[in-house]
Amino acid sequence: MGDAVSDTSAADVDIILKDVGADMNAWIGNLRTVLKFKSHQDVAVEKLSKPGISKDTLAKILFEGYQMVYSHRDKFESSRVCVEKLKSELIAAQRSVVKLQQQLLDFQEKLLKTQTEQLQGMSTVVDTAVDKGMRSYSQVLSRTIKNSVPVLSEQTLKKVVQEAVTDEDRSRNLVVFGLTDEATEDLDSKISSLFSDIEEKPSFEAVRIGEQLEERNRPVKISLRNSETVHRILQKAKNLRKTATHKTVYVQPDRSPEERAKHRELVTEMRRRAREDPDNYYYIHSGSILHRDKD
Hints:
Layout: H1 2-7, H2 10-35, H3 45-48, H4 55-71, H5 73-131, H6 137-147, H7 154-170, E1 173-177, H8 187-197, E2 204-208, E3 220-224, H9 227-236, E4 250-253, H10 257-276, E5 280-285, E6 288-293
Antiparallel strand pairs: 1-3, 1-4, 2-3, 5-6
């Protein structure tokens, strides 16, 4: 029951509620048919005890109702836990928004301070220049503006906030390399099969990245519900090399352009060390190159 509860997603809750609703409607319909009730208004205690309805009939209907409720008890618990999890994720998202808003306010305060200092500096330069006999205030102002530190625009502010939000979104993504790329494919089924090999069954959205070429398989970008799921899958991804169907498939975090460049440098350096020291096994962990004796 524990595994079923922890793996239940919002989509699963919708399916569970539909299944439970269908079973309940079927049981109610059977009760009305057996007891010959035309509508819900006909169901009353007095009518259930009227002559012609045997105890055996009532016992059978009651037992069927009990079996239905008992069969769905785990599903109700799974739904409750999922709702609590969604509430926690919503609270975390709200906190993240508040944090970003605070960062924006701090940035705006620093910007205002910088602009004030620039204006004060411009005033000092103008006064000094006039004292030295420069021709006009307009000349002084134009030279000062040309040589001053550029003032950050609204567009620059938006870019800073967008980068912060993008970094937050990237933490919920994975990138899969080496998965066979076909013109007509069921990509969701391929990803589900891959996750099944490492005993995971998360909710996800998957899309190929880049233009399709015959000589290579395009990577797949996968978006998950939260960064915790991403971290758990990355820890298990090394087990794919032991499978028959996905041993040449690699799962990596969704890195920024700067992170990808740094990772390429690490890979190049790791390969160099491995060539020079073939007796040890070299690998990358948490942004560092480590090694151990080969088994």
